[in-house]
Amino acid sequence: MEWLEFNRWSQEVQKRLAVQVARLSEVSQHLPKTQVTATQAYHLQSMLRRFPCTNPWGHPTAES
């Protein structure tokens, strides 16, 4: 398969990824620290169950 022959990112891709990492790092430092409660986790799980699983890569789903 072609993707198995991948050696490394191009210089341009490496540069763009480094910029994204720097931006995310800067933004994440200014976000308020939140705590997820059990109730919030339950609501998130029930919300996710209402929507079908998506798989854009076409691999078999691990869990349904």
Summarize the structure.
The chain has 64 residues and is mainly alpha-helical.
Describe this structure as you would to a colleague.
With 64 residues, the chain is mainly α. It is 48% helix and 0% strand. The protein is built from two helices and no strands. The chain has helices spanning 11-29, 38-49. The model has no long low-confidence stretch (mean pLDDT 79).
The main pleated sheet reads as:
none
Order of helices and strands: HH
Q: Give the CA-based shape.
A: flat
Helical content stands at 40-55%
The number of helical segments is: 2
Rg from alpha-carbon coordinates: 18 Å
Mean pLDDT across all residues, rounded? Answer: 79
Count all strands and give the number. 0
Sequence stretches where pLDDT stays below 50 over 5 or more residues: none
N- to C-terminal distance: 27 Å
Structural class designation? mainly alpha
Strand content: under 5%
Topology, pairings included?
Layout lengths: L10 H19 L8 H12 L15
Features:
flat; 64 residues
